[in-house]
């Protein structure tokens, strides 16, 4: 009876050791190779596409910004996000809203997201900072976007994730050009 149990015990020990090795390897890979990293968001182009004004009514002025943002995903998993909205604020007041269409950012890849934003000056002139900013020829905006979706690694591991990005945008009115600095953060 003891001889028939011995192969069973050896099989159980070998299986347990292999299972422990697989679990330790999976945990090590998760905390090193598959550890979520912050994406790098850069403004590839930020252009002043149109600027229209009414000579008889300066408040009736609008401008359109064309924004293309590059996202560099250093993770070993892709990120699929839902439709979202980007808000442009001027000293805390929302002055423009832009749609961001659902898409996928590939694993360890780069992706460009483009949209246009129509800013209506009528929404700006009510802000008490507007006269000071116009006197200095620079209008400072903040663009914020929240993307909710799923991060996927090896098409097996799926985790809900939310990406927050914020861009500080300066519009130089007389020069008709735009500069920006963007920051991003991902929460799992």
Task: Walk me through what this model shows.
This protein has 188 residues and is α+β, with helices and mostly antiparallel strands. The N and C termini lie far apart (54 Å). Strand 9 (157-172) and strand 10 (177-187) form a beta hairpin. The chain is rod-shaped. The chain is built from three helices and ten strands, in the order H-E-E-E-E-E-E-E-H-H-E-E-E. The protein has helices at 2-31, 122-125, 130-136; strands at residues 40-54, 57-72, 77-81, 84-90, 93-100, 103-105, 110-120, 138-153, 157-172, 177-187. The relative contact order is 0.17. The strands form two sheets. Strands 3, 4, 5, 6, 8, 9 and 10 form a seven-stranded antiparallel sheet that branches. A three-stranded antiparallel sheet has the order 1-2-7.
Provide a short characterization of the protein structure.
The chain has helices at residues 2-31, 122-125, 130-136; strands at 40-54, 57-72, 77-81, 84-90, 93-100, 103-105, 110-120, 138-153, 157-172, 177-187. It is an alpha+beta fold.
């Amino acid at each position: 009876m003891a001889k028939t149990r011995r192969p069973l015990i050896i099989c159980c020990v070998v299986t347990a050791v292999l299972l422990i090795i697989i679990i330790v390897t999976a945990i090590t890979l998760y905390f090193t190779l598959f550890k979520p990293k912050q994406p790098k968001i850069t403004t590839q182009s930020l252009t002043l596409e149109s600027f229209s004004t009414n000579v008889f009514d300066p408040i009736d002025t609008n401008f359109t910004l064309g924004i293309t943002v590059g996202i560099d995903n250093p993770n070993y998993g892709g990120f699929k996000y839902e439709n979202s909205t980007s808000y442009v604020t001027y000293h805390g007041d929302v002055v423009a809203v832009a749609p961001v269409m659902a898409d996928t950012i590939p694993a360890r890849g780069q992706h460009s997201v483009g949209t246009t934003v129509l800013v209506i000056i009528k929404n700006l002139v009510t802000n008490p900072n507007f006269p000071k900013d116009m006197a200095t020829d620079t209008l400072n905006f903040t663009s914020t976007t929240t993307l909710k979706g799923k991060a996927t690694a090896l098409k097996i591991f799926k985790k809900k994730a939310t990406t927050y990005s914020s861009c500080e945008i300066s519009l130089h009115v007389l020069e008709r050009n735009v500069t920006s600095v963007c920051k991003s953060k991902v929460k799992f």
